[in-house]
Design a protein that fits this description.
Elements (H helix, E strand, L loop, with lengths): L5 E7 L2 E7 L4 E7 L2 E6 L4 E4 L12 H14 L4 H16 L19 H7 L6 E4 L5 E7 L12 E7 L5 E9 L4 E7 L16 E2 L6 H8 L5 E3 L7 E8 L1 H6 L7 E7 L5 H7 L5 E7 H7 L5 E3 L2 E7 L5 E5 L2 E7 L5 H6 L1 E3 L2 H10 L3 H6 L1
Parallel strand pairs: 5-11
Antiparallel strand pairs: 1-2, 2-3, 3-4, 4-5, 6-7, 7-8, 8-9, 9-10, 12-20, 13-14, 14-15, 15-19, 16-17, 17-18, 18-19
Length: about 375
């Protein structure tokens, strides 16, 4: 099988715009004055804060690749399937980018285009293979010396520079026994008067929220959340779920609201929490939907006067008016305090607070 992706990028200082076309989908990104505008397949543009990625310790891409290989092996993938992944990701690794980045997010850790120039200068074994004409053609090799549980083929570079030692073209080939990755990059219009502007037309200021689905959910449930939660946790995500999405995770078969809790990513507890099996998520769904799924009545007793039950899926559910608050959590000792502290909350205010913080990754992924 062959996969081909073409990305075109215009760069002006720290601003840039890119368009990535894989044939089946198209992603576009514009970065202007610290704002990121994205869209896919000609949909409306969405704007993201200037820190769209969660804070935290930087991830070592080599360690990330090692973990991905281990996970692939655990899934039973054979050598050919593992090599297909390794060869493809090694292409980004040898270019100095984050192997976890989506194709549409051009540049990674490289400051385009100056970062490429600095990258070329770091080749210890580069040799001139053609100095005819105005410029040079260089060849160089990058290798991953670390043992990560699977052989990683070297990256063979060919780089063409103009008479001012600026990149004109780059080709990278990573070739294994059963898979081959090739990256070709062309550079043109150095010092051209390129202006990067914000996209025109309608722009979604909160692309991480499905406003129509949120309105549908809030028409059927009351927004409720505990004010007493386990130490160190904060409300990190508020996400409307469609009936199909809720059914996939075993949380009923109707549209509902998910609340996700975790420590602030800039706190010392966040890194520890990433390796901690404990979690807290809450689902708000209509009482009628919950009773339709399971006929077990809600009765007081476990949490005082608050009617409650345990669902067939093992969730603790409490009934507040016409809203069922479903707890999916390992913090069982904290449940009495959380149930007793349930209060209405302002969904719009919560979303606005999250948009200003570094938890965008959580909101997007869930």
């Amino acid at each position: 099988m062959t996969f081909r992706t073409v990305t075109e990028v215009d760069v002006a200082g720290d601003d840039f715009r890119s368009r990535t076309d894989s044939g089946d989908w198209v992603d576009e990104l514009v970065a202007v004055d610290g704002q990121f505008y994205t869209r896919a397949d000609d949909e409306d543009w969405g704007v993201w804060p200037d820190e769209p990625v969660p804070a935290g310790e930087p991830v070592d891409p080599v360690d990330e690749l090692r973990v991905m290989i281990e996970d692939s092996r655990e899934l039973g993938d054979d050598d050919a399937m593992v090599e297909e992944m390794v060869v493809s990701l090694a292409g980004g690794l040898y270019l100095g980018t984050d192997i976890g980045l989506q194709a549409g997010f051009v540049g990674g850790d490289i400051d385009l285009p100056a970062g490429f120039v600095e990258l070329f200068g770091s080749f210890a074994d580069a040799e001139v293979v053609d100095d005819s004409g105005d410029g040079l053609t260089l060849r160089a090799t990058r290798r991953l010396d670390e043992n990560i549980g699977f052989p990683v083929p070297p990256g063979e570079f060919e780089i063409r520079l103009d008479g001012e030692d600026r990149p004109v073209a780059l080709r990278l080939v990573v070739e294994g026994d059963t898979a081959r990755h090739q990256t070709e990059i062309g550079f043109a219009d150095w010092d051209a008067d390129i202006v990067i502007a914000a996209p025109e037309g309608e722009i979604d200021e909160t692309p991480w929220v499905d406003e129509e689905l949120l309105a549908e959910v809030l028409a059927t449930v009351s927004p409720l959340a505990p004010t007493a939660v386990p130490d160190g946790l904060v409300l990190a995500g508020v996400t409307p779920l469609s009936a199909d999405e809720a059914e996939e995770i075993g949380s009923g078969s109707c549209a509902q609201l998910e609340l996700w809790y975790e420590p602030p990513p800039d706190s010392p507890a966040y890194e520890e929490w990433l390796d901690d099996p404990d979690y807290l998520s809450i689902y708000l769904l209509p009482a009628g939907c919950a009773l339709e799924a399971e006929s077990t009545p809600f009765e007081p007793g476990t949490f005082g006067d608050v009617p409650s039950r345990e669902s067939d899926a093992g969730f603790v559910e409490v009934l507040v008016g016409e809203t069922v608050v479903q707890f999916d959590t390992t913090y069982t000792e904290d449940l009495p305090a959380m149930v007793a502290s349930l209060q209405p909350f302002d969904v719009d205010a919560a979303l606005a607070t999250m948009a200003e913080g570094p938890l965008m990754g959580t909101i997007v992924d869930r």
